[in-house]
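DATA CLASS: polypeptide
GOAL: derive structure tokens

***
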Amino acid sequence: MPPDFSMKKNAWIFAFIFVAIIIIFSIAYLQLSQKPSEKEGKIIDDRISPMENQALFVQILRIRNRGLMERMLTYGNSWKKTPSFYYVIKVDDEIGSSKGYVGETGIYTTWDTMGYESTMTFDVDEEREYSDVKISIIEIQQTGLLGQRSEEVIKENVSLKYDYRTGRWAGDDFLKDKDGMGHYLGKNYEIWFNIYQADYDHDNIPYWIEKNVLGTDPSIDDSKLDPDNDGIPTDWEWRYGYDPFTYNAHENLDPDIDGIENIEEYKMRKYFSNPFQPDIYIETDGMEKKGILDIPHIFYKESQQMIIERFAQHGINLYIDDGWKDGPINGGGELLPYQKNLDDVMGKQLLAFYTHNFADERKGIFRYVVVGSREDGGGFITPVNYNNFDAIYVSNDFNSVITRLAFTPREMRVMLAKAILHELGHSIGLMPVTFPGIDIMSRKVIDRYPSMSDEDYNGYLNNYYSVMNYKYIYNKPFFFSDETHTYLFDYSDGSNGLPYDQNDWEHVYLPTFQIDVPSYEEPSDENFEDFEIVNDYPGVIAKGWKFDENLTHEHSKEFEEFALLKNADVDIQIFLKKDANENEYNLRIYAKPKVEPVFAVYSLIAEGNIDGEGKIEFYSEHELIESVKESIT
């Protein structure tokens, strides 16, 4: 072989080796700079904050002291003294305090900070993976014989670990926990908060999630995109664990079975709504006084806090708009023109207020409570449209003071809270036609069950310890008072046993306010025995979907966990759709709470897919995240 040919060959070999070395080093450098991994042909980008200086934002949205209800149910004036407190936030080694930066005094002096949100920002090291976050509520208490001194006491601590890859946190609060993500129900204080990190496109979906899990563009705001056209954008669906690229029936989905479907939960996101935590929303209006000597016809703040706390103790979040700063036109807090007497049967005069002073976009989400005047000092709930019990009228005037024997400011507030809690009970399913003790009154006042024996009548009257029993709404003068009158501010726990007592909380059905109950109250009805109950409920009606009895029998127990119901078990039904499109689910799970004799209907609680071999799958962002993390390691 000629020498010149051999030299050319060696030159080509050396060139090939040189290029190979360059490529190898380039790959190694890329691995060191981005820590990529490979799974099913997808390159993982494990960077956390390549487009933004890394920082953490902690928002304190609301703080509520839980002690007012107990004080209101105790003789004395301790309820007039509001607590003094502030909060401290610690992120890793950095600490921020609200002390000195709240109003005129520098601290909160209120029972509830609703409407006064605040935030703190913490700079963190670039590419930091986790941060420890602690939120503390510090209460300033007076000490000494005459309260000359004060001390600061930690009343609540919330400890969390924030993950910058996922934007999730764990610890004392997490997604689908017992009191809702971003909501901590402590022993002394209730806290609503939000945590998020610096994000280039401001959609609160971290870069790592967009690149490796969703496949979205981290430079485009996903709060303005809805790729599956189901009415809810990508950011909200990601936050609560729904697939942003598969159509969900959010107009029907109601996993917590509170009557507020996901599309409505999305609309109420500014006001603490959570699709996995039962919510009750109330819009309330007052009424103008008859004269300068008249009592203000308003829903007292103390009465509101009592009701909020009672439901909080049972895992239900209750929110009352009595004049929210940015509420809609005809929102809460209006003073309606004075009207002497409204009635729940004859004429339905409440329709005028319901039509013109209750925001249309809230109907089906909110209950409507009007505090006004009435000759008998009482109140009522009435179905203004069709047979939906979502409109409540309660009097707060001299007649109610006399009727309820509430002669002090504290007693007036307690009795108003009792009256409204009673009417709310009807809106959650506690109706007279379901249990004879409900709305029962002494026969000396009114006979509501003429054919009932005196023994049974007195049995219900004296053993049903519930605010749904009229005997326990009204007060007694302090020298005749007893625990079952003055201190009973609750639905019954059933401790006296059947037949004359029931556990009301086990029969609560929150969607009652938006469905037609199976009985009508007619002007000719003189007592509860005249009510005719007709239940023609046809069951689930879903066009294109078919009930699958075999799947239901096989999986009903397994899928009960999808119904996030705290007070009762559920019946499960599974439906299939044969001609489902690729971007929609072909399996639906419906649930109906077992709250009989309270009337309930089936709610859509979850969606999934079933393949030709009968394998059922549900979207799980947790599994997607863990799969990506495993591929990295």
Q: What stands out?
A: The chain has five domains: 3-34, 55-262, 278-428, 436-504+514-534, 546-617. The first strand starts at residue 38 and ends at 39.
